[in-house]
Specification:
AAA_16; Rossmann fold; Arc Repressor Mutant, subunit A; alpha/beta; binds adenosine-5'-triphosphate; 18 helices; P-loop_NTPase; 9% strand; ATP binding; binds magnesium ion; ATP-binding; AAA+_ATPase; two-stranded parallel sheet
């Protein structure tokens, strides 16, 4: 059994499980209808009217529309019915907020499911009558603007100093009206939040890694500190791309006791399986067990990859005029996903990968480790290929010289990470596509 077969759980000896090459199909077989007027131009496949209501439209066109909602690789999950697994993490998150009254920092790789988790959390908290305010950070985010807009969503009805019958409440005034004009400090925000009664406010700050380092992050840390010191009814949930807590939130030492850091890690095989089965139910297609097995193996715990492969596989089945997704569709999905992902990485990385063809097997192992271990890995990941530690080191060094990976600064274990974030996903899919043409 080769290292690839061991990793993907497929045995080269059983023909049913071995991916076969997929030959390009003539255009009409890919589901692009021929133009009755004889023009060879590609056409839209589903009616826009059907797309207004995903339940409308029968057969292939309805399935195609439903499939786009069933798997949303480019968007976070919003519908709780489509949210797979993560029960333990959600429980921990809710307990930290509800019982421990802590502020939470959720961190993990890009596309691992942080925003989806935040959407579900927001929903559960709203159901429990929390006031929930979700905000996405960006390079331009300023502390004053952000918290002024959060305060603008809190009616004065919840302010201890205002009677329900007061004029200001009847006029729809909010906490923002009590903040001074101009710059706002964490202390001023916290002074107003301290007067909150009759509810709890949950402020979700997503994409925190994109917020400006320096002042903004220092002020957020200061706010957390002042809120915690005064046991105020306001909690923050911060999420962003990072390998650890410190990487995401500067000024950690001052607030370490008041926050809990929760990593969002790769999904288990069962969770990925649930994700596919949820998509199956929502799309109305049937995914053959073996197709689910291929997708689950190659998703490597990434909900993004699972959704991408699930969607492409479903579309491939519909293109064959079938409502049953077979292994051949899953294999075609690998190629199509690979073609899609390659456009998301830089020319520089693409050239470096192409120039290091001899190291592709090793690079694929590094990519898999990066996907499954939060981006960090050491030479030991090459064990399925090479047991000699010195040779492993040399291969890592070679990949570093090719500017694909780099040693993580001050990492006690001397681990590496990929320099460009989309590269491990591409390498892993590209390896899968290559294996298809070999077998
Ligand atoms: N629990 C889940 N169940 C089903 N699909 C999920 C789940 N979590 C994430 N996904 C899917 O995975 C992809 C990435 O999810 P999401 O956008 O939530 O990740 P993220 O960590 O916020 O990414 P980024 O770092 O880019 O902001 C999306 O396609 C989403 O639909
Ligand atoms: Mg996100």
């Amino acid at each position: 059994m080769s290292w690839w077969e061991k990793l993907t759980g497929r045995d080269a000896g059983t023909t049913a499980a071995v991916p076969r090459p997929v030959r390009p199909r003539p255009p009409q077989a890919t589901g692009v209808r021929e133009d009755p007027a004889g023009s060879a131009l590609p056409r839209f496949r589903a009616s826009a009217v059907d797309q207004l209501d995903s339940r409308r439209g029968s057969g292939a066109s309805g399935a195609r529309v439903r499939l786009r909602d069933a798997f949303t690789p480019s968007q976070p999950v919003v519908d709780p019915h489509m949210f797979a697994g993560r029960a333990a993490l959600l429980t921990t998150l809710i307990r930290a907020i509800e019982d421990q009254k802590l502020h939470v920092v959720l961190y993990g790789d890009r596309g691992i499911g942080k925003t989806s988790m935040l959407h579900v959390l927001a929903r559960q908290a709203t159901e429990a009558r929390y006031l929930v305010r979700y905000a996405s950070c960006g390079e331009e985010t300023s502390f004053g603007d952000l918290f002024r807009s959060v305060a603008a969503d809190v009616p004065l009805l919840f302010h201890a100093d205002y009677k329900p019958t007061s004029d200001a409440i009847e006029k729809g005034a909010t906490l923002a009206d009590l903040l001074p004009a101009g710059e706002v400090t964490p202390r001023q925000v916290s002074d107003q939040f301290a007067r909150l009664q009759g509810t709890r406010l949950l402020i979700i700050l997503d994409e925190f890694d994109r917020s400006p380092a320096g002042d903004f992050r220092r002020q957020v840390a200061e706010l957390i500190k002042t809120l915690s010191d005064r046991s105020v009814r306001v909690q923050l949930v911060i999420a962003g791309v990072a390998a650890n807590l410190t990487e995401l939130l500067e000024h950690i030492p001052s607030i370490r006791r008041n926050i809990v850091g929760l990593p969002v890690t790769s999904m288990t095989r069962e969770e990925v399986g649930t994700l596919i089965r949820n998509g199956e139910r929502a799309s109305g297609l049937t995914y053959a067990d073996e197709a689910v097995e291929i997708i689950t193996s190659l998703a490597a715990g990434s909900p993004y990859l699972a959704g991408l492969l699930g969607q492409h596989a479903g579309l491939a089945a519909i293109d064959r005029d079938s409502l049953v997704v077979e292994p051949q569709d899953a294999r075609l999905a690998i190629r199509r996903s690979c073609d899609e992902i390659v456009n998301r990485i830089s020319e520089r990385s693409r050239i470096a990968i192409a120039q290091n063809e001899a190291a592709w097997d090793a690079l694929a192992l590094m990519a898999l480790a990066a996907l499954q271990r939060g981006g960090r890995f050491g030479g030991d990941v090459l064990a399925p290929l090479e047991s000699d530690a010195q040779v492993q080191d040399a291969v890592m060094q070679h990949a570093a010289e090719a500017n694909l990976i780099e040693r993580i600064e001050a990492d006690p274990a001397g681990q590496f990470r990929f320099i460009e974030e989309g590269v491990p996903t591409y390498l892993w899919m590209a390896q899968a596509a290559r294996r298809l043409s070999i077998n």
